[in-house]
Amino acid sequence: MIAISPRRRRTGRVTPGDVGKALYLELMKRCLTNWIHAEAGEDGFDPEVRVDGRDWPPPRGAHTMIGLKRLDNLHECIEDVLRRKVPGDLIETGVWRGGATIFMRAVLKAYGVRHRRVWVVDSFAGLPPPQQPVSS
Ligand SMILES: C[S@@+](CC[C@H](N)C(=O)[O-])C[C@H]1O[C@@H](n2cnc3c(N)ncnc32)[C@H](O)[C@@H]1O
């Protein structure tokens, strides 16, 4: 579904700019999850699984593994921050191939936000071994 902010829809003040922004961000979500290329069954792609971010996309398969629903949630969270003017930068800790971070930049770009930075943090070595013994 194309995400136009609920308040804009309620007040009926949806401008062509809102529609363009929503279409751009929806296209970014489809590209970053590789929805635009994946055919059902190919490379293990299953739309019902990818929408929830429950698969592990193969190399060249997607830039993020979080799926469409969590990208929608990330989108709503950033719009909420912008609407309520919460100060500060954005950060993703544990980026894998960087798709969710790319999406964060895209939202800021769509809203013309230039003063917030997006930080990327990762070990780029997968999960570290546990340092504490597992207690029973
Ligand atoms: C599940 S993936 C993240 C998926 C990503 N958010 C996305 O949009 O596809 C977890 C990532 O966290 C990183 N990671 C795990 N433990 C870490 C740690 N202790 N410090 C830094 N990075 C870590 C891994 O290297 C991996 O890239």
Please name the defining characteristics of this protein:
mainly alpha, 5 helices, binds S-adenosylmethionine
How is this fold's topology laid out?
Blueprint: H1 6-11, H2 16-32, H3 47-52, H4 67-83, E1 90-93, H5 99-110, E2 118-121
Parallel strand pairs: 1-2
What does this 3D model show about the protein?
The mean pLDDT is 91. This protein has 5 helices and 2 strands. The protein is globular, with a radius of gyration of 17 Å. The protein has a two-stranded parallel ribbon. The termini are far apart. α2 (16-32) packs antiparallel against α5 and α4 runs parallel beside α5. The chain has 136 residues and is mainly alpha-helical. The structure holds S-adenosylmethionine. S-adenosylmethionine binds at residues 64-66, 94-96, 99-100, 122-128.
The whole-number mean of residue pLDDT values reads 91
Which superfamily, in CATH terms, is the homologous superfamily? Answer: Vaccinia Virus protein VP39
**SSE topology string:** HHHHEHE
How would you characterize the largest beta sheet? Answer: 2 strands, parallel
Short description:
With about 140 residues, the protein is mostly helical. The protein has a single domain, classed as Vaccinia Virus protein VP39 (Rossmann fold).
